[in-house]
Amino acid sequence: MCGIVAYFGRKHAQPILIEGLKRLEYRGYDSAGVALLEKGAFNITKTPGRISALEENLPEYESDSTVGIGHTRWATHGQPNQINAHPHVDYTGKIALVHNGIIENYATLKKWLIKEGCAFQSETDTEVVANLIGYFYDKNQDRNGRFAPKDCNRFEWAVQQALSEIYGTYGMAILCVDCPDMMIGVKKGSPLILGVGKNEYIIASDASAIVQHTTQAIYLSDGEMAIIDSDGFYTKTITNKEVQKELKEIEISLDQIELEGFDHYMQKEIAEQPVSLETCLNGRVDVKNGRIILGGVSQYLRELTRTKRIILTACGTAWHAGLVGEFLFEQLARIPAEVEYASEFRYRNPILEEGTVVIAISQSGETADTLAAIEQARDRGALVLGVVNVVGSSIARLTDAGVYLRVGPEIGVASTKAFTAQVAVLSMLAIELGRRRHLSTDAVQSLLRELMEIPAKIKRILAQTDYIRQIAQANKDHENWLFLGRGFNYPVALEGALKLKEISYIHAEGLPAAEMKHGPIALITDRMPAVFVATRCSQYEKIIGNIEEVRARGGKTIVVATEGDEHIKPYADHLITVPETCDQLQPLLTVVPLQILAYHAAVLRGHDVDKPRNLAKSVTVE
Ligand code: M6R
Q: The whole model's pTM is what?
Protein backbone atom coordinates (compact mmCIF):
# COMPACT_ATOMS: atom_id res chain seq x y z
CA MET A 1 0.00 0.00 0.00
CA CYS A 2 1.32 3.36 -1.05
CA GLY A 3 3.86 3.61 -3.80
CA ILE A 4 7.06 5.57 -3.52
CA VAL A 5 9.46 6.61 -6.24
CA ALA A 6 12.55 8.80 -6.08
CA TYR A 7 14.95 9.97 -8.77
CA PHE A 8 18.59 11.07 -8.54
CA GLY A 9 20.45 11.67 -11.80
CA ARG A 10 20.99 14.07 -14.66
CA LYS A 11 17.57 14.13 -16.29
CA HIS A 12 14.61 16.25 -15.25
CA ALA A 13 13.18 14.44 -12.25
CA GLN A 14 9.56 15.58 -12.46
CA PRO A 15 8.38 13.64 -15.54
CA ILE A 16 10.22 10.55 -14.33
CA LEU A 17 8.51 10.76 -10.95
CA ILE A 18 5.08 11.25 -12.51
CA GLU A 19 5.60 8.33 -14.89
CA GLY A 20 6.81 6.18 -11.97
CA LEU A 21 3.82 7.16 -9.84
CA LYS A 22 1.46 6.15 -12.65
CA ARG A 23 3.10 2.74 -12.70
CA LEU A 24 2.73 2.47 -8.93
CA GLU A 25 -0.76 3.92 -8.73
CA TYR A 26 -2.30 0.47 -8.27
CA ARG A 27 -0.64 0.41 -4.81
CA GLY A 28 -2.80 3.27 -3.56
CA TYR A 29 -4.62 6.13 -5.19
CA ASP A 30 -6.30 8.44 -2.72
CA SER A 31 -3.75 11.27 -2.86
CA ALA A 32 -0.35 11.93 -4.36
CA GLY A 33 2.58 14.32 -4.27
CA VAL A 34 6.09 15.13 -5.41
CA ALA A 35 8.96 17.14 -3.91
CA LEU A 36 11.75 18.42 -6.14
CA LEU A 37 15.00 19.64 -4.68
CA GLU A 38 15.88 22.89 -6.38
CA LYS A 39 17.88 25.96 -5.48
CA GLY A 40 18.29 25.00 -1.85
CA ALA A 41 14.60 24.37 -1.19
CA PHE A 42 11.85 21.86 -1.77
CA ASN A 43 9.35 22.54 -4.50
CA ILE A 44 6.32 20.52 -3.40
CA THR A 45 3.02 19.73 -5.10
CA LYS A 46 0.45 17.56 -3.32
CA THR A 47 -3.17 16.82 -4.02
CA PRO A 48 -6.02 14.54 -2.99
CA GLY A 49 -7.08 12.12 -5.72
CA ARG A 50 -5.27 10.38 -8.52
CA ILE A 51 -1.95 11.04 -10.25
CA SER A 52 -3.92 12.74 -13.02
CA ALA A 53 -5.08 15.31 -10.44
CA LEU A 54 -1.48 15.79 -9.32
CA GLU A 55 -0.41 16.41 -12.91
CA GLU A 56 -3.08 19.07 -13.30
CA ASN A 57 -1.75 20.83 -10.21
CA LEU A 58 1.91 20.87 -11.19
CA PRO A 59 3.38 24.29 -11.97
CA GLU A 60 3.13 25.19 -15.67
CA TYR A 61 6.88 25.41 -16.17
CA GLU A 62 8.76 22.13 -15.97
CA SER A 63 11.25 22.23 -13.16
CA ASP A 64 14.83 21.46 -14.21
CA SER A 65 15.55 19.75 -10.89
CA THR A 66 17.28 16.39 -11.26
CA VAL A 67 16.52 15.11 -7.75
CA GLY A 68 13.06 14.41 -6.35
CA ILE A 69 10.71 12.09 -4.49
CA GLY A 70 7.10 11.09 -5.18
CA HIS A 71 4.29 9.22 -3.45
CA THR A 72 0.87 7.75 -4.20
CA ARG A 73 -1.07 7.11 -1.02
CA TRP A 74 -3.46 4.60 0.52
CA ALA A 75 -4.43 6.40 3.71
CA THR A 76 -3.81 4.78 7.09
CA HIS A 77 -3.38 7.72 9.49
CA GLY A 78 -5.47 10.74 8.59
CA GLN A 79 -7.88 11.44 5.77
CA PRO A 80 -6.76 11.48 2.15
CA ASN A 81 -6.49 15.27 1.89
CA GLN A 82 -3.73 17.57 0.70
CA ILE A 83 -2.13 18.12 4.11
CA ASN A 84 -1.86 14.42 4.84
CA ALA A 85 -0.52 13.61 1.36
CA HIS A 86 3.21 12.86 1.10
CA PRO A 87 5.97 14.10 0.80
CA HIS A 88 6.22 15.32 4.36
CA VAL A 89 8.68 18.00 5.42
CA ASP A 90 10.12 18.46 8.91
CA TYR A 91 9.65 21.52 11.11
CA THR A 92 12.92 23.09 9.93
CA GLY A 93 12.02 22.72 6.26
CA LYS A 94 15.26 20.86 5.56
CA ILE A 95 14.14 17.24 5.41
CA ALA A 96 11.53 15.79 3.03
CA LEU A 97 10.47 12.19 2.75
CA VAL A 98 7.99 9.73 1.29
CA HIS A 99 6.98 6.64 3.23
CA ASN A 100 5.21 3.32 2.68
CA GLY A 101 4.40 1.46 5.91
CA ILE A 102 3.22 2.23 9.43
CA ILE A 103 5.06 3.80 12.35
CA GLU A 104 3.55 2.02 15.33
CA ASN A 105 4.96 4.24 18.08
CA TYR A 106 4.24 7.49 16.26
CA ALA A 107 1.89 8.83 18.95
CA THR A 108 4.53 8.58 21.71
CA LEU A 109 7.21 10.11 19.51
CA LYS A 110 4.88 12.88 18.40
CA LYS A 111 4.12 13.82 22.01
CA TRP A 112 7.83 13.99 22.80
CA LEU A 113 8.64 16.04 19.69
CA ILE A 114 5.84 18.50 20.44
CA LYS A 115 7.28 18.90 23.94
CA GLU A 116 10.63 19.61 22.32
CA GLY A 117 9.01 22.39 20.28
CA CYS A 118 8.43 20.70 16.90
CA ALA A 119 5.33 21.85 15.04
CA PHE A 120 3.15 19.36 13.15
CA GLN A 121 0.89 20.03 10.17
CA SER A 122 -0.68 16.65 9.41
CA GLU A 123 -2.32 13.72 11.17
CA THR A 124 0.08 11.20 9.65
CA ASP A 125 2.55 8.86 11.30
CA THR A 126 5.02 9.77 8.53
CA GLU A 127 5.42 13.40 9.57
CA VAL A 128 6.78 12.12 12.88
CA VAL A 129 9.68 10.51 11.01
CA ALA A 130 10.37 13.70 9.07
CA ASN A 131 10.39 15.70 12.32
CA LEU A 132 12.49 13.11 14.10
CA ILE A 133 15.17 13.20 11.42
CA GLY A 134 14.91 17.00 11.33
CA TYR A 135 15.28 17.15 15.10
CA PHE A 136 18.45 15.05 15.21
CA TYR A 137 19.85 16.89 12.19
CA ASP A 138 19.05 20.27 13.71
CA LYS A 139 20.38 19.52 17.20
CA ASN A 140 23.30 17.44 15.96
CA GLN A 141 22.87 15.40 19.15
CA ASP A 142 21.30 12.05 19.90
CA ARG A 143 18.66 11.57 22.59
CA ASN A 144 21.34 11.18 25.24
CA GLY A 145 22.96 14.47 24.32
CA ARG A 146 25.92 12.89 22.50
CA PHE A 147 27.08 14.88 19.48
CA ALA A 148 27.22 13.34 16.03
CA PRO A 149 30.71 11.99 15.31
CA LYS A 150 32.79 14.60 13.49
CA ASP A 151 33.72 12.38 10.56
CA CYS A 152 30.17 11.30 9.72
CA ASN A 153 27.67 12.76 7.32
CA ARG A 154 25.16 14.52 9.55
CA PHE A 155 22.16 13.78 7.31
CA GLU A 156 22.96 10.07 7.21
CA TRP A 157 23.60 10.05 10.96
CA ALA A 158 20.30 11.84 11.69
CA VAL A 159 18.40 9.29 9.61
CA GLN A 160 20.00 6.45 11.57
CA GLN A 161 19.21 8.14 14.90
CA ALA A 162 15.58 8.57 13.91
CA LEU A 163 15.24 4.98 12.71
CA SER A 164 16.63 3.70 15.99
CA GLU A 165 13.62 5.32 17.72
CA ILE A 166 10.99 3.88 15.43
CA TYR A 167 8.89 0.72 15.69
CA GLY A 168 6.99 -0.30 12.62
CA THR A 169 7.43 -0.79 8.92
CA TYR A 170 8.85 1.50 6.31
CA GLY A 171 10.16 1.89 2.83
CA MET A 172 11.29 5.51 2.58
CA ALA A 173 13.15 7.90 0.30
CA ILE A 174 14.61 10.92 2.09
CA LEU A 175 16.16 14.21 0.95
CA CYS A 176 17.89 17.06 2.78
CA VAL A 177 18.20 20.57 1.35
CA ASP A 178 21.70 20.95 2.77
CA CYS A 179 22.84 17.84 0.87
CA PRO A 180 21.55 18.31 -2.66
CA ASP A 181 23.96 15.63 -3.87
CA MET A 182 22.53 12.95 -1.66
CA MET A 183 19.45 10.79 -1.43
CA ILE A 184 18.76 8.05 1.14
CA GLY A 185 16.51 5.00 0.84
CA VAL A 186 15.68 2.85 3.88
CA LYS A 187 13.71 -0.36 4.25
CA LYS A 188 12.09 -2.39 6.97
CA GLY A 189 9.02 -4.50 6.36
CA SER A 190 7.92 -2.63 3.22
CA PRO A 191 9.44 -3.23 -0.19
CA LEU A 192 12.17 -0.99 -1.59
CA ILE A 193 14.30 -1.43 -4.69
CA LEU A 194 17.17 0.73 -5.90
CA GLY A 195 17.41 0.83 -9.70
CA VAL A 196 20.98 1.49 -10.81
CA GLY A 197 21.28 3.13 -14.23
CA LYS A 198 24.03 5.01 -16.01
CA ASN A 199 24.55 8.12 -13.89
CA GLU A 200 21.05 7.79 -12.50
CA TYR A 201 19.33 6.02 -9.62
CA ILE A 202 15.68 5.31 -8.98
CA ILE A 203 14.31 4.17 -5.65
CA ALA A 204 10.86 2.59 -5.90
CA SER A 205 8.40 0.34 -4.13
CA ASP A 206 8.50 -2.07 -7.03
CA ALA A 207 10.29 -2.71 -10.26
CA SER A 208 7.49 -1.41 -12.48
CA ALA A 209 8.63 2.17 -11.80
CA ILE A 210 12.24 1.32 -12.59
CA VAL A 211 12.28 -1.01 -15.58
CA GLN A 212 11.79 1.78 -18.13
CA HIS A 213 15.12 3.30 -17.03
CA THR A 214 17.29 0.34 -16.08
CA THR A 215 17.07 -3.41 -15.56
CA GLN A 216 19.81 -3.47 -12.92
CA ALA A 217 18.70 -3.23 -9.33
CA ILE A 218 19.60 -3.76 -5.70
CA TYR A 219 16.93 -5.37 -3.54
CA LEU A 220 17.40 -3.97 -0.04
CA SER A 221 16.73 -6.29 2.90
CA ASP A 222 15.02 -5.23 6.10
CA GLY A 223 17.15 -2.94 8.22
CA GLU A 224 19.24 -1.73 5.29
CA MET A 225 19.78 1.66 3.72
CA ALA A 226 21.13 2.85 0.39
CA ILE A 227 22.92 6.17 0.21
CA ILE A 228 23.25 7.73 -3.21
CA ASP A 229 25.65 10.61 -3.81
CA SER A 230 27.54 12.17 -6.68
CA ASP A 231 30.17 9.38 -6.54
CA GLY A 232 27.65 6.53 -6.85
CA PHE A 233 25.96 4.63 -4.07
CA TYR A 234 26.77 2.53 -1.02
CA THR A 235 24.70 0.32 1.23
CA LYS A 236 24.80 -0.27 4.98
CA THR A 237 22.56 -1.36 7.80
CA ILE A 238 20.58 1.25 9.62
CA THR A 239 22.88 0.52 12.57
CA ASN A 240 25.80 1.72 10.42
CA LYS A 241 27.46 -1.55 9.41
CA GLU A 242 28.60 -1.80 5.81
CA VAL A 243 26.80 -4.34 3.61
CA GLN A 244 27.65 -5.42 0.09
CA LYS A 245 24.64 -5.94 -2.13
CA GLU A 246 24.54 -7.77 -5.42
CA LEU A 247 23.20 -6.07 -8.54
CA LYS A 248 20.33 -8.19 -9.87
CA GLU A 249 18.53 -8.22 -13.20
CA ILE A 250 14.92 -7.02 -13.00
CA GLU A 251 12.83 -9.86 -14.38
CA ILE A 252 9.85 -7.96 -15.69
CA SER A 253 9.70 -6.30 -19.08
CA LEU A 254 8.01 -3.10 -20.16
CA ASP A 255 5.37 -4.81 -22.34
CA GLN A 256 4.25 -6.86 -19.34
CA ILE A 257 3.23 -3.68 -17.57
CA GLU A 258 1.57 -1.96 -20.54
CA LEU A 259 -2.16 -2.25 -21.31
CA GLU A 260 -1.42 -3.36 -24.88
CA GLY A 261 -4.80 -2.40 -26.28
CA PHE A 262 -6.93 -3.60 -23.38
CA ASP A 263 -9.15 -1.16 -21.49
CA HIS A 264 -8.06 -2.40 -18.08
CA TYR A 265 -5.31 -4.50 -16.55
CA MET A 266 -7.93 -6.84 -15.08
CA GLN A 267 -9.32 -7.49 -18.56
CA LYS A 268 -5.80 -8.08 -19.90
CA GLU A 269 -4.93 -10.40 -17.02
CA ILE A 270 -8.11 -12.47 -17.44
CA ALA A 271 -7.34 -12.83 -21.14
CA GLU A 272 -3.71 -13.74 -20.44
CA GLN A 273 -4.62 -16.85 -18.47
CA PRO A 274 -4.10 -19.46 -21.21
CA VAL A 275 -0.58 -18.13 -21.70
CA SER A 276 0.20 -17.36 -18.04
CA LEU A 277 -0.86 -20.86 -17.02
CA GLU A 278 1.19 -22.40 -19.79
CA THR A 279 4.21 -20.48 -18.50
CA CYS A 280 3.43 -21.60 -14.97
CA LEU A 281 3.25 -25.28 -16.02
CA ASN A 282 6.02 -25.17 -18.57
CA GLY A 283 8.90 -27.53 -17.80
CA ARG A 284 7.28 -28.61 -14.54
CA VAL A 285 4.95 -31.33 -15.81
CA ASP A 286 6.34 -34.57 -17.22
CA VAL A 287 3.26 -36.44 -18.38
CA LYS A 288 5.18 -39.32 -19.96
CA ASN A 289 6.92 -40.30 -16.74
CA GLY A 290 4.12 -39.14 -14.48
CA ARG A 291 6.35 -36.68 -12.63
CA ILE A 292 6.29 -33.08 -11.45
CA ILE A 293 9.52 -31.09 -11.37
CA LEU A 294 9.46 -28.16 -8.95
CA GLY A 295 13.08 -27.14 -8.58
CA GLY A 296 12.41 -24.54 -5.88
CA VAL A 297 11.14 -27.10 -3.36
CA SER A 298 12.90 -30.29 -4.54
CA GLN A 299 15.16 -30.47 -1.50
CA TYR A 300 12.15 -30.45 0.82
CA LEU A 301 9.93 -32.96 -1.01
CA ARG A 302 10.95 -35.83 1.24
CA GLU A 303 9.97 -33.81 4.33
CA LEU A 304 6.74 -32.73 2.66
CA THR A 305 5.85 -36.29 1.71
CA ARG A 306 6.21 -37.40 5.33
CA THR A 307 4.51 -34.43 6.93
CA LYS A 308 1.57 -35.13 9.19
CA ARG A 309 -0.13 -31.82 8.51
CA ILE A 310 0.00 -28.96 6.03
CA ILE A 311 -1.17 -25.49 6.98
CA LEU A 312 -1.83 -23.09 4.13
CA THR A 313 -1.93 -19.43 5.04
CA ALA A 314 -2.88 -16.41 2.95
CA CYS A 315 -5.34 -13.53 2.55
CA GLY A 316 -8.17 -12.72 0.14
CA THR A 317 -8.01 -14.43 -3.21
CA ALA A 318 -4.83 -16.25 -2.23
CA TRP A 319 -6.76 -17.68 0.74
CA HIS A 320 -9.38 -19.01 -1.69
CA ALA A 321 -6.58 -20.67 -3.66
CA GLY A 322 -5.39 -22.05 -0.31
CA LEU A 323 -8.83 -23.56 0.32
CA VAL A 324 -8.58 -25.35 -3.03
CA GLY A 325 -5.11 -26.44 -1.87
CA GLU A 326 -6.55 -27.85 1.36
CA PHE A 327 -8.95 -30.04 -0.65
CA LEU A 328 -6.18 -31.04 -3.07
CA PHE A 329 -3.72 -32.14 -0.39
CA GLU A 330 -6.42 -34.10 1.39
CA GLN A 331 -7.84 -35.80 -1.68
CA LEU A 332 -4.75 -36.42 -3.77
CA ALA A 333 -2.02 -36.82 -1.16
CA ARG A 334 -4.20 -37.88 1.78
CA ILE A 335 -2.35 -35.42 4.02
CA PRO A 336 -4.43 -33.52 6.61
CA ALA A 337 -4.47 -29.90 5.52
CA GLU A 338 -6.18 -26.70 6.54
CA VAL A 339 -6.14 -23.17 5.30
CA GLU A 340 -5.80 -20.28 7.75
CA TYR A 341 -6.42 -16.58 7.31
CA ALA A 342 -2.96 -15.13 7.90
CA SER A 343 -4.47 -12.25 9.89
CA GLU A 344 -6.00 -14.72 12.37
CA PHE A 345 -3.20 -17.26 12.41
CA ARG A 346 -0.61 -14.65 13.42
CA TYR A 347 -2.42 -13.81 16.65
CA ARG A 348 -3.79 -17.19 17.62
CA ASN A 349 -0.73 -18.68 19.23
CA PRO A 350 -1.13 -21.63 16.86
CA ILE A 351 -0.13 -25.16 17.78
CA LEU A 352 2.32 -26.50 15.23
CA GLU A 353 3.34 -30.06 16.01
CA GLU A 354 6.80 -31.13 14.94
CA GLY A 355 6.89 -31.85 11.23
CA THR A 356 4.04 -29.51 10.27
CA VAL A 357 4.69 -27.77 6.97
CA VAL A 358 3.32 -24.29 6.37
CA ILE A 359 2.66 -23.03 2.84
CA ALA A 360 2.24 -19.27 2.47
CA ILE A 361 0.48 -18.10 -0.69
CA SER A 362 0.77 -14.56 -1.99
CA GLN A 363 0.76 -12.84 -5.35
CA SER A 364 2.67 -9.76 -4.21
CA GLY A 365 4.85 -11.48 -1.65
CA GLU A 366 4.44 -8.35 0.48
CA THR A 367 1.15 -8.87 2.34
CA ALA A 368 1.82 -7.80 5.92
CA ASP A 369 -0.44 -10.38 7.59
CA THR A 370 1.00 -13.24 5.55
CA LEU A 371 4.52 -12.12 6.39
CA ALA A 372 3.65 -12.04 10.08
CA ALA A 373 2.07 -15.52 9.86
CA ILE A 374 5.28 -16.83 8.27
CA GLU A 375 7.31 -15.35 11.11
CA GLN A 376 5.01 -17.06 13.63
CA ALA A 377 5.45 -20.39 11.88
CA ARG A 378 9.22 -20.02 11.62
CA ASP A 379 9.49 -19.07 15.29
CA ARG A 380 7.76 -22.37 16.09
CA GLY A 381 10.26 -24.29 13.98
CA ALA A 382 7.99 -25.15 11.03
CA LEU A 383 9.29 -25.56 7.52
CA VAL A 384 7.70 -22.69 5.58
CA LEU A 385 7.30 -22.81 1.82
CA GLY A 386 6.10 -19.95 -0.36
CA VAL A 387 3.85 -19.88 -3.41
CA VAL A 388 4.59 -16.40 -4.63
CA ASN A 389 4.45 -14.41 -7.85
CA VAL A 390 6.79 -11.46 -7.34
CA VAL A 391 10.38 -12.59 -7.63
CA GLY A 392 12.61 -11.41 -4.81
CA SER A 393 9.64 -10.19 -2.74
CA SER A 394 9.73 -10.26 1.06
CA ILE A 395 7.77 -13.54 1.31
CA ALA A 396 9.97 -15.16 -1.33
CA ARG A 397 12.99 -14.25 0.77
CA LEU A 398 11.55 -15.06 4.17
CA THR A 399 10.37 -18.59 3.34
CA ASP A 400 12.69 -21.62 3.41
CA ALA A 401 11.95 -22.42 -0.21
CA GLY A 402 9.11 -22.03 -2.65
CA VAL A 403 7.56 -22.11 -6.07
CA TYR A 404 7.12 -19.01 -8.20
CA LEU A 405 3.89 -18.55 -10.14
CA ARG A 406 5.72 -17.19 -13.20
CA VAL A 407 2.68 -15.25 -14.48
CA GLY A 408 4.36 -11.85 -14.85
CA PRO A 409 3.20 -8.69 -13.07
CA GLU A 410 -0.43 -8.63 -11.95
CA ILE A 411 -1.47 -4.99 -11.81
CA GLY A 412 -5.28 -5.03 -11.62
CA VAL A 413 -6.28 -4.80 -7.96
CA ALA A 414 -8.67 -7.73 -8.45
CA SER A 415 -6.50 -10.82 -8.60
CA THR A 416 -7.22 -13.14 -11.54
CA LYS A 417 -4.28 -14.80 -13.27
CA ALA A 418 -2.49 -15.16 -9.92
CA PHE A 419 -5.42 -17.22 -8.58
CA THR A 420 -5.36 -19.72 -11.43
CA ALA A 421 -1.57 -20.03 -11.17
CA GLN A 422 -1.74 -20.47 -7.38
CA VAL A 423 -4.24 -23.30 -7.87
CA ALA A 424 -2.06 -24.79 -10.62
CA VAL A 425 1.03 -24.75 -8.38
CA LEU A 426 -0.87 -26.30 -5.48
CA SER A 427 -2.28 -28.94 -7.86
CA MET A 428 1.23 -29.81 -9.03
CA LEU A 429 2.46 -30.09 -5.46
CA ALA A 430 -0.49 -32.22 -4.37
CA ILE A 431 -0.16 -34.53 -7.38
CA GLU A 432 3.56 -34.99 -6.72
CA LEU A 433 2.98 -35.74 -3.04
CA GLY A 434 0.16 -38.10 -4.02
CA ARG A 435 2.51 -39.88 -6.43
CA ARG A 436 5.11 -40.27 -3.72
CA ARG A 437 2.56 -41.56 -1.22
CA HIS A 438 -0.01 -43.73 -2.96
CA LEU A 439 -1.30 -42.63 -6.37
CA SER A 440 -0.80 -45.03 -9.26
CA THR A 441 1.19 -43.94 -12.30
CA ASP A 442 -2.00 -44.13 -14.38
CA ALA A 443 -3.85 -41.85 -11.99
CA VAL A 444 -0.97 -39.35 -11.96
CA GLN A 445 -0.63 -39.38 -15.74
CA SER A 446 -4.33 -38.85 -16.19
CA LEU A 447 -4.28 -35.86 -13.78
CA LEU A 448 -1.26 -34.38 -15.53
CA ARG A 449 -2.85 -34.79 -18.97
CA GLU A 450 -5.91 -32.95 -17.67
CA LEU A 451 -3.71 -30.23 -16.18
CA MET A 452 -1.88 -29.66 -19.44
CA GLU A 453 -5.19 -29.27 -21.28
CA ILE A 454 -6.40 -26.48 -18.97
CA PRO A 455 -4.86 -23.51 -20.90
CA ALA A 456 -6.59 -24.50 -24.16
CA LYS A 457 -9.86 -25.05 -22.30
CA ILE A 458 -9.65 -21.57 -20.75
CA LYS A 459 -9.38 -20.20 -24.30
CA ARG A 460 -12.75 -21.77 -25.06
CA ILE A 461 -14.27 -20.05 -22.03
CA LEU A 462 -12.78 -16.70 -23.04
CA ALA A 463 -14.51 -17.08 -26.42
CA GLN A 464 -17.84 -16.65 -24.54
CA THR A 465 -16.88 -13.23 -23.18
CA ASP A 466 -19.53 -11.31 -25.18
CA TYR A 467 -22.25 -13.68 -24.06
CA ILE A 468 -21.17 -13.39 -20.41
CA ARG A 469 -21.16 -9.61 -20.79
CA GLN A 470 -24.84 -9.81 -21.79
CA ILE A 471 -25.57 -11.77 -18.61
CA ALA A 472 -23.77 -9.05 -16.64
CA GLN A 473 -25.85 -6.42 -18.46
CA ALA A 474 -29.10 -8.19 -17.57
CA ASN A 475 -28.21 -8.47 -13.88
CA LYS A 476 -25.93 -5.54 -13.09
CA ASP A 477 -28.58 -3.52 -11.28
CA HIS A 478 -29.25 -6.14 -8.63
CA GLU A 479 -27.58 -5.04 -5.41
CA ASN A 480 -27.27 -8.47 -3.78
CA TRP A 481 -25.95 -11.68 -5.30
CA LEU A 482 -25.25 -15.17 -4.03
CA PHE A 483 -22.49 -17.47 -5.27
CA LEU A 484 -22.90 -21.15 -4.50
CA GLY A 485 -20.78 -24.23 -5.12
CA ARG A 486 -19.94 -27.59 -3.60
CA GLY A 487 -16.70 -29.53 -3.26
CA PHE A 488 -13.94 -28.03 -5.35
CA ASN A 489 -16.38 -25.42 -6.66
CA TYR A 490 -17.09 -24.06 -3.19
CA PRO A 491 -13.84 -22.00 -3.06
CA VAL A 492 -14.72 -20.79 -6.56
CA ALA A 493 -18.06 -19.52 -5.26
CA LEU A 494 -16.19 -17.56 -2.57
CA GLU A 495 -13.81 -16.17 -5.17
CA GLY A 496 -16.66 -15.24 -7.55
CA ALA A 497 -18.36 -13.29 -4.76
CA LEU A 498 -15.11 -11.50 -3.81
CA LYS A 499 -14.45 -10.54 -7.43
CA LEU A 500 -17.92 -9.08 -7.85
CA LYS A 501 -17.99 -7.13 -4.59
CA GLU A 502 -14.53 -5.62 -4.76
CA ILE A 503 -14.91 -4.03 -8.18
CA SER A 504 -18.66 -3.52 -8.71
CA TYR A 505 -19.55 -2.66 -5.07
CA ILE A 506 -22.46 -5.10 -5.31
CA HIS A 507 -23.02 -7.03 -2.10
CA ALA A 508 -22.17 -10.64 -2.84
CA GLU A 509 -21.92 -13.66 -0.60
CA GLY A 510 -20.23 -16.96 -1.40
CA LEU A 511 -21.41 -20.14 0.32
CA PRO A 512 -21.27 -23.91 0.13
CA ALA A 513 -24.55 -24.56 -1.71
CA ALA A 514 -25.92 -26.93 0.94
CA GLU A 515 -25.61 -24.25 3.64
CA MET A 516 -28.39 -22.28 1.95
CA LYS A 517 -31.17 -24.01 3.82
CA HIS A 518 -29.52 -23.26 7.16
CA GLY A 519 -30.32 -19.58 6.85
CA PRO A 520 -29.34 -17.72 3.69
CA ILE A 521 -32.25 -19.15 1.68
CA ALA A 522 -34.39 -16.62 3.53
CA LEU A 523 -32.79 -13.97 1.33
CA ILE A 524 -33.97 -15.46 -1.95
CA THR A 525 -36.17 -13.26 -4.15
CA ASP A 526 -36.27 -12.68 -7.89
CA ARG A 527 -34.07 -9.63 -7.29
CA MET A 528 -31.15 -11.59 -5.92
CA PRO A 529 -29.31 -13.55 -8.61
CA ALA A 530 -27.93 -16.87 -7.38
CA VAL A 531 -24.83 -17.96 -9.28
CA PHE A 532 -24.43 -21.74 -9.07
CA VAL A 533 -21.15 -23.37 -10.01
CA ALA A 534 -22.67 -26.71 -10.96
CA THR A 535 -20.33 -28.60 -13.24
CA ARG A 536 -20.57 -32.36 -13.76
CA CYS A 537 -18.51 -33.53 -10.82
CA SER A 538 -18.98 -35.77 -7.81
CA GLN A 539 -21.63 -33.58 -6.16
CA TYR A 540 -23.55 -32.77 -9.33
CA GLU A 541 -26.85 -34.37 -8.29
CA LYS A 542 -26.66 -32.67 -4.90
CA ILE A 543 -26.19 -29.20 -6.31
CA ILE A 544 -29.06 -29.71 -8.76
CA GLY A 545 -31.18 -30.23 -5.64
CA ASN A 546 -29.89 -26.94 -4.22
CA ILE A 547 -30.74 -25.11 -7.46
CA GLU A 548 -34.24 -26.52 -7.32
CA GLU A 549 -34.66 -25.23 -3.78
CA VAL A 550 -33.76 -21.71 -4.92
CA ARG A 551 -35.95 -21.80 -8.01
CA ALA A 552 -38.90 -23.12 -6.00
CA ARG A 553 -38.70 -19.87 -4.04
CA GLY A 554 -38.73 -17.66 -7.10
CA GLY A 555 -34.94 -17.21 -7.25
CA LYS A 556 -33.18 -16.38 -10.52
CA THR A 557 -30.19 -18.53 -11.39
CA ILE A 558 -27.02 -18.05 -13.36
CA VAL A 559 -25.50 -21.51 -13.74
CA VAL A 560 -21.93 -22.43 -14.65
CA ALA A 561 -22.20 -25.97 -16.02
CA THR A 562 -20.22 -28.47 -18.07
CA GLU A 563 -20.30 -28.20 -21.87
CA GLY A 564 -22.94 -30.48 -23.36
CA ASP A 565 -24.96 -30.81 -20.15
CA GLU A 566 -28.51 -30.76 -21.51
CA HIS A 567 -30.03 -31.93 -18.25
CA ILE A 568 -29.17 -28.70 -16.41
CA LYS A 569 -30.70 -26.32 -18.95
CA PRO A 570 -34.16 -26.03 -17.35
CA TYR A 571 -32.53 -25.06 -14.05
CA ALA A 572 -30.82 -21.97 -15.44
CA ASP A 573 -32.13 -18.52 -16.30
CA HIS A 574 -28.65 -17.93 -17.74
CA LEU A 575 -26.36 -20.83 -18.59
CA ILE A 576 -22.58 -20.51 -19.00
CA THR A 577 -20.60 -23.61 -19.93
CA VAL A 578 -17.03 -24.67 -19.32
CA PRO A 579 -15.18 -27.64 -20.84
CA GLU A 580 -15.10 -30.89 -18.92
CA THR A 581 -12.25 -31.72 -16.57
CA CYS A 582 -11.68 -33.85 -13.46
CA ASP A 583 -13.10 -32.79 -10.08
CA GLN A 584 -9.82 -31.57 -8.66
CA LEU A 585 -9.04 -29.19 -11.51
CA GLN A 586 -12.53 -27.68 -11.82
CA PRO A 587 -11.56 -24.40 -10.11
CA LEU A 588 -9.06 -23.62 -12.87
CA LEU A 589 -11.94 -23.46 -15.34
CA THR A 590 -15.01 -22.47 -13.35
CA VAL A 591 -13.42 -19.33 -11.88
CA VAL A 592 -12.85 -17.81 -15.33
CA PRO A 593 -16.50 -17.05 -16.25
CA LEU A 594 -16.97 -15.54 -12.78
CA GLN A 595 -13.98 -13.24 -13.33
CA ILE A 596 -15.47 -12.15 -16.68
CA LEU A 597 -18.92 -11.67 -15.14
CA ALA A 598 -17.53 -9.50 -12.33
CA TYR A 599 -15.38 -7.48 -14.72
CA HIS A 600 -18.30 -6.62 -17.01
CA ALA A 601 -20.74 -5.94 -14.19
CA ALA A 602 -18.26 -3.40 -12.79
CA VAL A 603 -17.55 -1.78 -16.16
CA LEU A 604 -21.26 -1.56 -16.96
CA ARG A 605 -21.86 0.10 -13.59
CA GLY A 606 -19.24 2.67 -14.56
CA HIS A 607 -16.49 1.76 -12.09
CA ASP A 608 -12.73 1.97 -12.46
CA VAL A 609 -12.08 -1.76 -12.14
CA ASP A 610 -8.32 -1.46 -11.83
CA LYS A 611 -8.58 0.98 -8.94
CA PRO A 612 -11.64 0.07 -6.89
CA ARG A 613 -12.53 2.41 -4.07
CA ASN A 614 -10.83 1.96 -0.70
CA LEU A 615 -8.55 -0.81 -1.98
CA ALA A 616 -4.93 -1.17 -3.01
CA LYS A 617 -3.13 -3.98 -4.74
CA SER A 618 -0.78 -5.16 -2.07
CA VAL A 619 -1.79 -4.83 1.55
CA THR A 620 1.51 -4.03 3.21
CA VAL A 621 -0.10 -2.73 6.40
CA GLU A 622 -2.00 -4.64 9.02
O1 M6R B 1 -0.59 -10.23 -2.76
P2 M6R B 1 -1.43 -11.22 -2.02
O3 M6R B 1 -1.79 -12.40 -2.88
O4 M6R B 1 -0.84 -11.65 -0.72
O5 M6R B 1 -2.76 -10.46 -1.70
C6 M6R B 1 -3.77 -11.04 -0.94
C7 M6R B 1 -5.05 -10.26 -1.03
O8 M6R B 1 -4.87 -8.96 -0.56
C9 M6R B 1 -5.58 -10.20 -2.47
O10 M6R B 1 -5.77 -11.47 -3.00
C11 M6R B 1 -6.92 -9.42 -2.51
O12 M6R B 1 -7.90 -10.14 -1.83
C13 M6R B 1 -7.34 -9.14 -3.96
N14 M6R B 1 -7.78 -7.79 -4.07
C15 M6R B 1 -8.44 -9.99 -4.42
O16 M6R B 1 -8.79 -9.75 -5.73
A: 0.90
